[in-house]
Structures are given as structure tokens and as C-alpha cells.
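Researcher: Next entry in the queue.
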Amino acid sequence: MSSKVSLPLPKTDFANPAGRGAVQRPIKSFVLRAGRMGPGQTRAMNELGPQFLVPYAPQPLDAARTFGRNAPLIVEIGFGMGDATAAIAAALPESDFLGLEVHGPGVGALLKLIGERGLANVRIIRHDAVDVLEQMIAPASLAGVHVFFPDPWHKLKHHKRRLIQPAFVALLASRLAPGGYLHCATDWQPYAIQMLEVLTAEPALHNTVSHAADGYVPRPGYRPLTKFENRGLRLGHGVWDLVFRRE
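Model: Structure for this entry, 247 residues:
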């Protein structure tokens, strides 16, 4: 699943994004692809979009009003085609899930799954994740954040585009409630190593595994194996999960 956010060049004061240190020239960590939507995705967009798509607005999201209840809120960044999102939402009906994705076919695909599986606990914002997190998500309001298989940007010159960077992790940590968790997963070992370094260096987060361990956790039961992941495992590729909690 690809990550879709604009990453800042300098470290930003996320508590006051409009003030000193505000980002002037973001680096795009994604490339908008001209994907074609199938008829089922188009129909889901037209029929279910008005109910499950939340328009971006530079103001705090009223989650209770959006979902029609008070429940733990988990944000997923870059949900791809939405298979894992739908499976997790079905497995954890007591939580609400807000998916952030910019690519139309993926949004249409998740809407289709929402309709097929009758998922009432999923909403989607089709917009850049940094904008949403800065403007729409209140500090200390999230029960969790999922970042599964973000683009590893293999080439050294593109590493600056990787999603998991210190400034972005600081923003994520600020949006987590005390005890809230950040769950990242990747199948690219060099990126896993960088993720572990960046997350460990964030003072507001602590690793959920012992320091005596290697820093990675077994795949939590709520995260399903994706088709892409299954293929990689058959080829002998590794997968690394990291779960950190807000102090």
C-alpha cells in the first residue's frame, strides 16, 4: 500500500502549523497515478460516497457526529485498495476507522467493500494526510494510527520522500491519546531499520517490545495478510511490524 502525504522539509511546529516554522515547500511522498476506475468502483463512489466520504475542511473533525457514536478512532494512512482496512474494521466493530487516501480507484474500491460488507464504522477522506492530521485531527484524540506498506522509495536520492520521517512521526505522536498506538509495517528491510530508528528517537513514543528484543513485533492478529504480502512471503521476503505507544 502506498503512502500519500506531503512531507515537510524542515521540522514544523505542528501545534501551531500556521506560525513560525510552518512548512513552505512540501516534498510529495506520492505520485498521483492516472488509475482507471472500474464500473463497480464508480458505482460505489456515486452511491456510497455521499454517506462515507468526508470532505476535507481546515477545521477539527467532529468524530462523534461523523460516525454517529462515540468510539475509539483509528486513522489509516494510504490504505491502497482497502482490503486490509475493510477486514480490520469488520474484525473490530467497537472502533471507528478513518482512511486517508488520494487515489480514486482505491477510494472507490474501499467504498465498494463498505457496501458489500455493511461496514458502518469506516469513513474516508480523499486528501493529503498531513493536511488532514494538522487541521482536522485534534491533539491527543486518536486511539491508533496504521501505516501499512508505505512506498519504500528504494533509491537513496528518494529516501527524503519516505513517509516515516522524524517530523511526521512527531505529528502522529501529537495526535495520539495517551496509550494510543502507532502500527507500521513494511516488507523492505532497509526501510524497517529506518522506521525503527525514527520511532525509537521520538520521545513521546515507546516500543511495545522489550529493548532486549530486536524491536519488531509479530504480526498483530487484527492485521490481515494482504495479497501482495502473501506473494512476498511465498518468495521468501520478510515482513516487519512495529508497534509503538504514546507515553
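Model: Helices lie at 39-52, 63-67, 83-91, 104-117, 129-135, 166-175, 189-201, 227-234.
Researcher: Noted, moving on.
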